[in-house]
Amino acid sequence: MSKEKFIDTLTLHSLLLRLLLVCRSLAGVTGDEQKEFYIVYLEDDHHVNTDTRAQNHIHLLSSVKGSYLDAKESIVYSYTKSFNAFAAKLTKAEANRLLRKDNVLSVSPSRYHKLHTTRSWDFLGLHLTSRRKLQTERETIVGLLDTGITPESKSFKDDGLGPPPKKWKGTCGHFANFSGCNNKLIGARYFKLDGKPDPEDILSPIDVDGHGSHTSSILAGNLVRNASLFGLAKGTARGAVPSARVAIYKVCWVSSGCSDMDILAAYDAAIHDGVDVISVSIGGGPADYASDSIAVGAFHALKKGIITVASAGNHGPSLGNVANHAPWILTVAASGIDRDFRSHVHLGNGKDFSGLGVSAFDPKWKLYPLVSGADAARDSASKETARFCVEDSLDPSKVKGRVVFCEVSSAGTESVIKRIGGIGTIIESDQFLDSAPIFMAPATIVNGTIAKFVDAYIHSTRTPSAVICKTREIKKAPAPFVASFSSRGPNPGSRRLLKPDIAAPGVDILAAYTLMRSLTGLKGDTQFSEFTLMSGTSMACPHIAGVAAYVKSFHPNWTPAAIKSAILTTATPMSVRVNNEAEFGFGAGQASPTRAVSPGLVYDMDEMPYIQFLCREGYNQSSLAVLVGSKSINCSTLLPGLGYDDVNYPTMQLSLKNKQEPTTGVFRRRITNVGPAVSIYNATIKPPRGVQITVKPTILSFSRVLQKRSFKVVVKAKSMPSMQMVSGSLVWKSSRHIVRSPIVISSP
Ligand SMILES: *[C@@H]1O[C@H](CO)[C@@H](O)[C@H](O)[C@H]1NC(C)=O
Ligand SMILES: *[C@@H]1O[C@H](CO)[C@@H](O)[C@H](O)[C@H]1NC(C)=O
Ligand SMILES: *[C@@H]1O[C@H](CO)[C@@H](O)[C@H](O)[C@H]1NC(C)=O
Ligand SMILES: *[C@@H]1O[C@H](CO)[C@@H](O)[C@H](O)[C@H]1NC(C)=O
Ligand SMILES: *[C@@H]1O[C@H](CO)[C@@H](O)[C@H](O)[C@H]1NC(C)=O
Ligand SMILES: *[C@@H]1O[C@H](CO)[C@@H](O)[C@H](O)[C@H]1NC(C)=O
């Protein structure tokens, strides 16, 4: 039980700490010692109905346990709708015995994974007035695996919507503290297969955390006029597809996190229920796809034509930590938008500066006495910790009625100061200054330069004073940047595949929240709001899931690969000067929803090329069996495949060999015309310095829609120092369309 999944939001306080993905304590499997939850994957049995399948699971397990009753009690879930597997509580010996059975493909422990706007759509060019296919948008169903949902939220009102689409086979029952579904929120279920109550959550699809309400409304929230957080970020809140239907599958729990077996159960249900797009803002799976429930679930979804969009993770800015990087997943990085939330701070000497964060409090006085935490220590022993204003380090009599200057330490410094009578907190931090935390009492974050100033001022006078003003929204230069927290490539799963795929806004996004939790969740916070700001790749992911649903509403028959291709080849590459990690930060670039609807050409494929890709990566019959549903794959008959990576991907990545000679990669691609029947495309190559790239042929002419053309790209690059990357591009251009693929060359 070591690996965990996290929701990819920054809890904004932990963000200060760089403890971005703090695990809340995780309940191990206790009571039944030496037994753990395992997921047992079985060979596909298409002819068998679901009841028989479940019976077969019990029989199979009986043969190992020696008792039908024991087997029946041990099975906690039979995945029977969309694939063939079960979850059960087993000893290690039982797991091993099961693994030796003929039709058992794998037996893997179920791990626990933790919980990792208004302006954002206009920023991406998807305006309220953008062309929509309303009829098909209403037929589109988006599914989210998350913390649940707030059904009362204005974002999920069903104004203007008829009954659910006919294809919908899902359910929404009556649950505790859950007011029920409507024609907008058409599905709500929860999965908690370990059977242990979560002390901070409710066994119901209700969202106690706020994360699921936020992501759902970014994806498909109905229009809500005059939405804001205490007047900040005011505007019309809406999702990408405001008329699409929402199905929520609650798999993440406030204190226990998100378990593999629950995630798989949600996939089993969602695929069967008829969703069109699945959005997963959860991270933390292992690099091996066959033991990552999100990768496995997403592959089964892919086979049914359903695209999975997932968050890249919040482990940036260091390299090589992107999550959810399977080639059949659309992996989303977070970018910033053109606004900032800042508070003015006035000092008694007339100096004025601004700090970051949302402090919704109006000061009563013009100035308050100011003290440094270091000077307000409870006693000499606590002097060191007092600098950081940690709990119990300060003398309340030196803090009462004052603004306190602290170095950043743990979450909720302002809450510590408030509890002992302080008026406000100025926090010094040089980290992660690109998203705004929300404070439960007056506070602001300043950088090191300003902090030096403040500290010098405090010690320059007998009566230092300061005031922190209420936060205002500031316009920033629009150059999109990759958020510092957003996880970067290279892809730890494969050096032949560029990840992340794409970037979308994930900084300070305003969207729906829950009234069951205060804004910060900190002790003593009395701030509640129907909308709030959150940051994380968790917020970027539903933006792209929304774009995928938008594209699908125009092209209901497109495959997941075609939808991904449309989104990637129409994206706008971001500035390399602003974003040093280039494609390892933003993938193909910032998504452009309106262009994605009309890409001209798409790199399409079914599921077989993904298998070939994995064969090339060293997967074999047994490690592929879980994905394919049988032991029938023989990689040696699939390889050698067509080219360097064997996958018809819309981006290309060459990993240099670690030696002096140049490395050559031959990429073969097949592209499908989805634009005008008669079209001619010319190739333009932009090679990075020192790299030779050629394409053949250089002109592709099409005479009909859905016609396919093949071409070959040869990339030849000299060796580079370790851990470097350079990038160029291939662009197919017609009179109407620009189809762009980044080409990345990296050294190990
Ligand atoms: C959930 O519902 C129960 C029973 O109606 C009620 O006692 C409880 O306070 C509710 N919990 C929350 C967090 O609203
Ligand atoms: C808009 O919201 C603000 C703050 O939430 C509120 O004070 C104001 O009355 C609202 N305006 C309208 C027109 O509803
Ligand atoms: C600190 O912030 C000020 C004002 O926003 C800015 O001018 C300065 O460059 C920043 N310093 C650093 C080291 O980021
Ligand atoms: C298949 O791959 C797995 C994991 O890489 C490895 O443990 C196993 O030995 C391989 N099996 C064969 C038959 O090569
Ligand atoms: C896979 O195919 C190769 C070549 O056809 C064959 O030699 C080999 O026996 C096959 N392996 C398995 C496990 O069937
Ligand atoms: C493509 O190239 C041909 C021949 O070089 C040229 O005549 C044509 O104008 C080009 N088309 C576009 C769209 O650039």
Describe this structure in words.
Residues 138-587 form the Peptidase S8/S53 domain. Residues 38-116 form the Inhibitor I9 domain. Belongs to the peptidase S8 family. Residues 646-745 form the Subtilisin-like protease fibronectin type-III domain. With 748 residues, the protein is an alpha/beta fold. It contains 20 helices and 37 strands. It has four domains: 19-109, Alpha-Beta Plaits (2-Layer Sandwich), CATH 3.30.70; 118-338 and 481-558 and 571-580, Rossmann fold; 340-475, Glucose Oxidase, domain 1 (3-Layer(bba) Sandwich), CATH 3.50.30.30; 601-746, Immunoglobulin-like (Sandwich), CATH 2.60.40.2310. Strands 18, 19, 20, 21, 22, 23, 24 and 25 form an eight-stranded mixed β-sheet that branches. A seven-stranded parallel β-sheet has the order 8-11-7-14-16-17-26, sandwiched between helices. The radius of gyration is 27 Å and the shape is globular.
Number of domains: 4
The Cα radius of gyration reads 27 Å
Report mean pLDDT, rounded to a whole number.
90
Task: Give the name of the CATH architecture of the largest domain.
Answer: 3-Layer(aba) Sandwich
Query: Which residues sit in consecutive blocks of at least 5 with pLDDT less than 50?
Result: 11-32, 117-121
Q: How large is the share of residues in beta strands?
A: 25-35%
The N- and C-terminal alpha carbons lie at a distance of 31 Å
Structural class category = alpha/beta
The hetero molecules present are: 2-acetamido-2-deoxy-beta-D-glucopyranose
Biggest sheet descriptor: 8 strands, mixed
The CATH C-level name of the largest domain is Alpha Beta
Overall geometric form: globular
User: Helix fraction?
Assistant: 10-25%
Q: CATH superfamily name of the largest domain?
A: Peptidase S8/S53 domain
Our count of helices gives: 20
* Number of extended strands: 37
